[in-house]
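thread from #wetlab-drylab

HS: before we spend reagent money on co-crystallization trials with phosphoenolpyruvate, can we at least see a predicted complex? here's what I'd submit
DV: go for it
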Amino acid sequence: MAANGNGEVAMNGNGAATARKPKGLLPSITTSDKHHDVCHDMSAPTVKAQTIDELHSLQKKKSAPTTPIKGIQGTFAALPEEERQKQQLQSISASLASLTRETGPKVVRGDPASKSQTSPRVHQQHVAEPAISASDSSLKFTHVLYNLSPAELYEQAIHYEKGSFITSTGALATLSGAKTGRAPRDKRVVKDDVTGEELWWGKGSPNIEMDEHTFMVNRERAVDYLNSLDKVFVNDQFLNWDPENRIKVRIVSARAYHSLFMHNMCIRPTPEELEDFGTPDFTIYNAGQFPCNRYTHYMTSSTSIDLNLARREMVILGTQYAGEMKKGLFSVMHYLMPKRRILSLHSGCNMGKDGDVALFFGLSGTGKTTLSTDPNRYLIGDDEHCWTETGVSNIEGGCYAKCIDLSREKEPEIWNAIKFGTVLENVVFEEHTREVDYADKSVTENTRASYPIEYIPNAKIPCVGPHPKNVILLACDAFGVLPPVSKLNLAQTMYHFISGYTALVIISH
Ligand SMILES: Nc1ncnc2c1ncn2[C@@H]1O[C@H](COP(=O)(O)OP(=O)(O)O)[C@@H](O)[C@H]1O
Ligand SMILES: C=C(OP(=O)(O)O)C(=O)O
């Protein structure tokens, strides 16, 4: 609205100013509105919604069914999609079933806090008629947040999980609780007739035994804990980039942090692959916030990470350190792959421009991630691989880098991978700017970043390569028998590999 020096200012129906100027008088303001209309600001188009709720409903486009159902067109296409979702819920309900009450929980898809959820599609899996009279747990719903996207998981974490923040570069900073590293002394494997023969037990072995019954006690504890929650996160994903030896894994967890971590670390299925996922080959029940019961046989602390190879299940109680899931699945691969005459390797792996593949073996913290992430070579993987008759394949879909003293200058690829989607565990950041101080060890020295492998620009997707040409043993043994850098011939390399020549690097634990 504009007025000349001493003229009148009037508004016309379009909101434009008009002026009349009677002589010797101060201008008076009048409005002329020949259309008896409200004033509109024509500079910005208006929204189509009539109410705020309608406006909000416009914001989110409904996800289309993951893929069109082959051969079925038009309105009938929705039915098989519904059927598929029902089967998916059935399968999740079966995963979460209590084995003593012999019935699965009432599961329903979606966030319990979501207003848009009108009449949820409920599914209850009846393995058999309940053997024991129903308890309160059979009356409640368990909401399933299935394969959420990183953005959705960020929202869940920030809304509901204390200690979750977005850093200045967009990563999700989180805390893993009391445990900031793996707990190998609390990791147990069920010893039964088969594994009793197949695994290495006793002095010197890392395998600590438990019996089947104790596993079931802990499993029930974890399942009951998860079912007592309003919602659980379920990830259906893959391990191993070799399509012939791919393993389907399901991770049931209570935290968005755990779900995003596994989203990054396992291979992410395409919508088409998810549609045909079916029954998982292996399931993790992560009830890490809930302790195990010290009165239970074999339990020596409130933490227990239990592997049952016959049932193809793993139960986590009493530790929220996400690395347990990743390394737990690696233990499973160490069991399954050699049975197929495939060598599972705790190594980083990269490939030169000429296709020359190198393996980097070493314990935690010896530099597998740092050295395999080489700007002049293609990254195949940083930690877990399989070696078959035809070549190597990465088991995972992401990397898990140490970040203590991380610098942009020394490790620019890892530095730049710490962006939206990356989980940053146990780091300290500046309260206002949210800039991470990678030198700060206040929470732990074992600070970590978990990111999808494609965050490294030189990643080779799919993560497979030909037979390795060079093998590097990162012994990290400053006081050993070999000089700091030693070139070994084939026989010497084999000898030191078999004997596990290394040093104990006390970084993580
Ligand atoms: N010369 C070096 N080579 C590799 N890593 C180094 C070197 N010097 C320091 N480091 C540090 O050592 C740590 C190695 O960790 P990482 O590569 O994640 O180990 P791993 O993958 O074997 O568990 C990183 O924090 C890295 O910055
Ligand atoms: C996952 C771990 O192993 P690595 O250091 O080999 O990544 C860990 O030690 O927590």
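DV: The first helix runs from residue 52 to 59.
HS: ok that's useful, forwarding to the group
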